Structure formats: C-alpha cells, structure tokens
C-alpha cells in the first residue's frame, strides 16, 4: 500500500488518521509542523501527504505550496485535511497545489476515497 506522511500539530488528529490508514494497510510517517513535514517529505519521498492547515510557524497552505513547487517533491500529491471549510479556503488550498481538500472531521470512507483518487 501507500507510504503516507501526516503533517498535523494535533496528536489526537494524527492518531485518528494513523489508525484509519494503518487499518487499510498503509505505512504512516508523521511530522508535527510544516517545517518538519517538508524536511521529512524531501527525505522520505512518501506516496501522499495529508496536510493540516492551522499549525504554528509554517502553515499548511505555505507547506503545500513549497512541496508542490519544489522539483524533488512536486510529484507527491498533497491532501489538505483541515477544520477550515470555507469555499475560499478550499480554493486557496487547491491553488497552492493540493490535489484534494477534506474538512475535519473525516470518515475513513472519505479519506480512503480521496487517497485512491490522488494515487491513480
């Protein structure tokens, strides 16, 4: 299955996402902020990144933009997973290079469907 990098500053959200992913056979790596997530993505080259938006320091929009604009990581699909569910947030996230935008709380079915879509 896929190697997934979760970038989220909430231990609770990271745990929930990790549980869903591992139940479905995926290998999970985690980073608790945007800067650490970018470093890990460059080092590990995961198959997909799940990105929170609201984080201290580099936020998820900024981190998504960096990953999508850097040649070494531009091929990695980013799925934004956030509580920010306004249409303007969704549009902005997609403009930063995200391949999907999911609003928390998410179900396992929604997450797996989004992952299947971006990993085609």
Briefly, what is this?
Residues 3-119 form the Response regulatory domain. The chain has 120 residues and is of the alpha/beta class.
Describe the structure.
The chain has 120 residues and is an alpha/beta fold. The protein starts with a strand and ends with a helix. It is built from five helices and five strands.
Write the layout of secondary structure elements.
Blueprint: E1 3-7, H1 11-23, E2 27-31, H2 34-44, E3 48-51, H3 60-69, E4 78-82, H4 87-95, E5 100-103, H5 108-118
Parallel strand pairs: 1-2, 1-3, 3-4, 4-5
Helix pairs in contact: 2-3
Number of discrete helical segments? 5
Mean pLDDT: 97
Assembly classification: single chain
* Share of helical residues: 40-55%
The profile of the biggest β sheet is: 5 strands, parallel
| Cross-sheet strand order for the largest sheet | 2-1-3-4-5
**Any idea what the shape is?**
globular
Measured by DSSP, the beta-strand proportion falls in 15-25%
- Rounded radius of gyration (Å): 13 Å
Structural class from helices and strands?
Answer: alpha/beta
Number of strands: 5
Task: List the defining traits of the structure above.
single chain, 120 residues, 19% strand
């Amino acid at each position: 299955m896929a190697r997934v990098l979760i970038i989220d500053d909430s231990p609770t959200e990271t745990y929930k996402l990790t549980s869903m992913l591992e139940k479905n056979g995926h290998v999970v790596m985690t980073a608790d902020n945007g800067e650490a997530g970018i470093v890990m993505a460059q080092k590990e080259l995961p198959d997909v990144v799940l990105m929170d938006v609201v984080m201290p320091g580099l936020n998820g929009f900024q981190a998504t933009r960096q990953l999508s604009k850097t040649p070494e990581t531009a091929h990695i699909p980013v799925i934004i997973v956030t509580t920010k569910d306004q249409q303007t947030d969704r549009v902005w996230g997609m403009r930063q290079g995200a391949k999907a935008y999911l609003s928390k709380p998410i179900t396992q079915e929604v997450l797996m469907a989004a992952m299947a879509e971006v990993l085609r």
